[in-house]
């Protein structure tokens, strides 16, 4: 059975140790400890080795990019503090102290090669740094805000308004009917790539209602939100969403595609889906294992009912 604790980017998280975030003295000392673990990010991408895992730095990171913004991510199982630093957009690896050690790799590609702990830390850092990049000014009075609480909050010195990192709930859902499931594709996806449908939850609706609404809007298929089955969820740092996976029993079969949202949608059999997951389907291939869509499809494909 699919479990959120085993979903990539969410699996095996470190202890966030939130009680440390307001202790400036402890944080400064922790950043200089011999056992500190520091991940470097640039433009939302992690610094990884040629073998694929994160390159974990120590206090020497200050020599690489002095004064770069930092986040306290938490503590690992040994109690070692874990931080992330955000290097400048134009930071040049080849002319730095880490030349030849690794490189900044596009997050999706990097995440597929990481351990669970690495992926969770990099995902958290990506979401937070991207949030900071777009929330430099107060939404209430327009004044410049300051990073506080080890990167988990911004505060406006002018009006005192506190700003917290946002997470956007997204329903990602698989409509099923009998031995068939509904898959769709967007026009900018690679040829043959199909996936579950998905959409943001709007104000005033539940995640189940959002799922049923999106299926109806995008593909014309009607489902009862009261019968939606929750499967698992996944933090998805593009830039900061929580993907909530659901399976819904379809009440109708005729597809009417909204071409502003999808290029196409169609029903495929469970056997076709199993071939897709195995990489042997003659027409289609499915999302990688790093995406919750893969696990949602796999959950239903492996059922025998």
Explain this structure to me?
The protein has 305 residues and is α+β, with helices and mostly antiparallel strands. The protein folds into 3 domains: 4-134, Nucleoside Triphosphate Pyrophosphohydrolase; 136-166, no CATH class; 168-301, Nucleoside Triphosphate Pyrophosphohydrolase (Alpha-Beta Complex). Helices cover 22% and strands 25% of the residues. It has 7 helices and 14 strands. The strands form 3 sheets. Strands 9, 10, 11, 12, 13 and 14 form a 6-stranded mixed beta sheet that branches. Strands 3-4-1-2-5 form a 5-stranded mixed beta sheet, sandwiched between helices. β1 and β2 (45-48) form a beta hairpin. α6 crosses α7. The longest helix has 19 residues, at 116-134. The mean pLDDT is 96.
Backbone shape: globular
Instruction: Name the beta content range.
Output: 15-25%
Give the N-to-C terminal Cα separation.
Answer: 14 Å
Q: How many strands, what sense, and barrel or not for the largest sheet?
A: 6 strands, mixed
Q: How many helices?
A: 7
Per DSSP E runs of 2 or more residues, the count of β-strands stands at 14
CATH topology call of the largest domain? Nucleoside Triphosphate Pyrophosphohydrolase
Query: How many domains would you count in the coordinates?
Result: 3
Uncertain runs: none
CATH-derived architecture of the largest domain: Alpha-Beta Complex
Q: Given this structure, which CATH class of the largest domain is correct?
A: Alpha Beta
Considering the protein shown, what is the CATH homologous superfamily of the largest domain? Nucleoside Triphosphate Pyrophosphohydrolase
**Mean pLDDT, all residues:** 96
The Cα radius of gyration reads 22 Å
Helix/strand order, N-terminal first: HEEHEEEHHEEEEEEHEEEHH
Counting helices, strands and paired strands, the structural category is alpha+beta
